[in-house]
Amino acid sequence: MVNATLPSSGEICVDAANDEAFRRLDTADPWVVDVAPAGAVLPGYHDRLVLTSGAPMPWHAYTGGQREALIGGALFEGLAGTRDEAIRAFAAGDIEIGSCHDYGAVGSLAGIYTASMPVFVVENRSHGNIGYCNFYEGKEPRRLNYGCYDAGVHERLLHVNTTLAPVVGEAIRRLGGVALKPVIARALRMGDEVHSRNAAASVLFTREILPAVLDMVADGVPGVRETMLHLAENDYFFLRLSMAAAKASADAMVVPGSTLVSAMAFSCRGFAIKLAGLGDRWFEGPPPIHEGK
User: Fold this and answer.
1) What pLDDT, in 10s, does the model give residues 90-109?
2) Neighbours of 259 (CB within 10 A)
3) Which contacts (CB < 8 Å, 24+ apart) does range 196-205 have?
4) Which of 123, 155, 163, 218 sits CB 3.0–4.6 Å from 223 for a disulfide?
5) What is the pTM for the complete model shown?
């Protein structure tokens, strides 16, 4: 935590705090440095914890797709054998629910993390903090982060764990990390906005890791061809890297007295924000009504 300039009266100068928070955001330098299971790298993580999007809520408050995604995450991780067992375990507190943001992570839609799920480890080299995001499940419309869980979803998540993440992680480690800000900047100039469109960023990232990938082919590392084909056909692959980069950048904004927004998240119940000057406190409200065309 950085101390903003304080006037002689001892009161916090909001303008100075906001200037410092913005400076830290502006000078962030996010690098993806590793891929590892969430349970091994997220601070305070334990085996019976499932993370989800939005501000923290009690189990009974979750509804719809987010509730189903939490149940699916518990089943995938083997924390329960059946749907009913998972529901009882959540209700009794035997399976704990946490907010992604409170663990240095950010989640897409339902945002489900379990201990075995691989995450991108993104280091903000300007300020030393870390941000995390899990992997894109692929373009199949039935996905855990959409609240779906069945045999197909299970197999795709397992494929990420056992094939895609190990190959991508090995490539990143061989390179000593990949700077994400230059990739994002160039992708923006090529028409991406690194959220709903990531086509250019995904191609640029694939190009960044290509030298390591070629060495891995020569070394006989398994799963390389399969992983590269996955990257080639999934334009959204980079989205999770941009999310982790954003998290690592925004978390560096924590400055006493700053009124800038440092986190935004939604759940099945509402929308919530954190302010850079107020630490882990959430401010919650109802979601806006959206009428899609």
Assistant:
1) 999 999 999 999 999 999 99
2) 13
3) 197/235, 198/235, 198/236, 198/237, 198/238, 198/239, 198/242, 199/235, 201/238, 201/241, 201/242, 202/231, 202/234, 202/235, 202/236, 202/237, 202/238, 204/238, 205/178, 205/231, 205/237, 205/238, 205/241
4) 163
5) 0.92
Structure tokens given for 25? 């955001």
Task: For residue 259, give both structure tokens.
Answer: 């009124």
Taking the C-alpha atoms of residue 278 and residue 213, their distance in angstroms, rounded to an integer, is 43
| pLDDT means over runs of 10, the chain (293 residues) | 41 90 98 98 97 96 97 98 98 98 95 98 98 94 96 97 97 98 98 95 98 97 96 94 98 96 94 94 87 78
Quote the CA–CA distance of 52 and 68 in Å, as a whole number: 11
Cα separation, 27 vs 9, whole angstroms:
30
Q: What is the CA 207 to chain-centroid distance, rounded?
A: 22
Residue 138, SS3 per DSSP: coil
Contact by Cβ (8 Å): 242, 194 = yes
Domains and CATH numbers, the chain: 29-251 (3.90.1710.10)
Residue 237, token pair as written in the block? 């692959």
Terminal CA-CA length for the chain: 43
Q: Check residue 4 and report its DSSP letter.
A: P
